[in-house]
C-alpha cells in the first residue's frame, strides 16, 4: 500500500516536471530565436536537465508499481546512474545560470564579448561530460558497487547498490561545493549592487542625475532576486536529503532509511519542478511567451471544434447566402 502511494506521488511529480520544463523550454527557444541572448542557453539547458530528471523518475515509478521486482545488479546500476547524471546536470546548470548572471553584473561592458556562442557551447558540453562522469562513475569503477547484496533488493535505490565511499564522494564533492559557490556568487553580487547604489546616490546628491531612471541598478536587483530565489529553493529542496544521506552512510542505524527514500528524496526532485515555475513567474519574457503559446493553442482548439469554419467578424467577409428557391430553379 505504501509502495503504491509512493509510486502515485512519483507519477504525478514526474508528469508535472516533464510538462512544466517542456513548456518553459519551448518558450526559451522562442526567446532565443528573437533575441539571440547567449545567457538564455544556460536557462534552456536547466530546463532540459530538469525534464530529464522527470523522465528518469518514470522508470522508478514502474519499479514502485512492479514490486516485488528483484532487478539484476547491472540494471539498477545503470538506472541510478541516469538518475544521478540528470540530477547532477540540473545542479550544474543552476551553477551556470548563477555564474552567467554574476558575470553580467560584474563585467557588463565586456559581457557580450566574453559570452560568445563557442564559449557557451564548450561550457555546456563540459557540463554534461562532468554530470555523466559523476553518474556513471560506479559503472567505470566497479569497486563503488555493492556486489554482495543478498538477498537482492526489491527495487533500485542508492544505498542498496552503491558503496558508502561513492555516496560520500557525490555528496561532499558535488553538493556542498555547489552550495558554497552559490553563496559566494550571491554575496559578491550584493557587494557590487551596494557599490552601484552608492554611486547613484553620489550622482543624485551632486544634482547630475537629470531624472534618468537607474536602469542598471534595476537590472542588477532583478538578477540578484532570481539568483537568491534559486539558491533558496535549491537549499531547501536538497539540503535535508544530503545531510540525512551522509548520516545514513556513516551510521546506517542512526537514521530511518525509508524517510530518506520516500520523503527527503522527493523534496530534492521537487526542485526540478520549482525551477521552471520560478522562471515562468519571475521572468516577464518567459511569462509572455507562455501566454502566447496558450493563446495559440486555444485558437487551434477552437478552430478544430468549429471544423475549421470561419464566421463573420472583424477582418473577415461574410459568406454569400444562397436561397433554396434559386437552387430549385
Automatic annotation (TrEMBL):
Bilayer topology: Multi-pass membrane protein
InterPro entries membership: GPCR_Rhodpsn, GPCR_Rhodpsn_7TM
Localization in the cell: Cell membrane
PROSITE patterns: G_PROTEIN_RECEP_F1_1, G_PROTEIN_RECEP_F1_2
Keywords carried by this UniProt record: Cell membrane, G-protein coupled receptor, Membrane, Receptor, Transducer, Transmembrane, Transmembrane helix
One Pfam family, short name: 7tm_1
Keyword Transmembrane helix included in the entry's annotation: yes
Name of the protein this chain belongs to: Glucose-dependent insulinotropic receptor
